[in-house]
TrEMBL record:
SUPFAM superfamilies: L domain-like. It comes from Artemisia annua (Sweet wormwood). This is Uncharacterized protein. Gene3D superfamilies: Ribonuclease Inhibitor. PANTHER family: LEUCINE-RICH REPEAT PROTEIN, PLANT-TYPE-RELATED (PTHR48010:SF45), OS05G0588300 PROTEIN (PTHR48010). It holds the Pfam family LRR_1. The lineage of its organism: Eukaryota, Viridiplantae, Streptophyta, Embryophyta, Tracheophyta.
Length: 129
């Protein structure tokens, strides 16, 4: 319970898998996560994270489901992505463009607006290649 301490995650320079699911963590997604060049799998589901999801990383598994993220899902460099789960958040606007030959699973279900009505997402903005 609490926030991920600032300036600690980036010290884990060889970390490949980070799993912090179901810990009641809250706050913004730490910028330090973007500074781990070896990170391949990120599991942050079932927490209370808020804010944006600005993330640009060559990652295989990206699970942010069941949080309180809002705004647009600004995720780039998805060329090696195998699994993307953004479900049960408060995103709006365009979904991320997904162009990965390795993609096995994608979940955008139950993305709702702040008033708990279904969000009007522009589904045509993502593509499976």
């Amino acid at each position: 319970m609490g926030e991920i301490p600032i300036a600690t995650i980036r010290k884990l320079r060889k970390l490949e898998v980070l799993s912090l699911w179901h810990n009641q963590l809250h706050g913004q997604l730490p910028r330090d996560l973007r500074m781990i060049p070896t990170l391949k799998d990120l599991y942050l589901q079932h927490n209370l994270f808020t804010g944006s999801t600005k993330f640009s990383h060559h990652i295989k598994v990206f699970n942010l489901s069941d949080n309180r993220f809002a705004g647009t899902a600004d995720i780039q460099n998805l060329d090696v992505l195998e699994t993307l789960d953004l479900s049960n958040n408060y995103f709006f606007g365009n979904l991320p463009f997904v162009s990965s030959p390795f993609l096995k699973s994608i979940n955008f279900s139950t993305i709702v607006s702040r008033d708990n009505s279904r969000s009007l997402l522009e589904i045509q903005s993502f593509l499976f290649c």
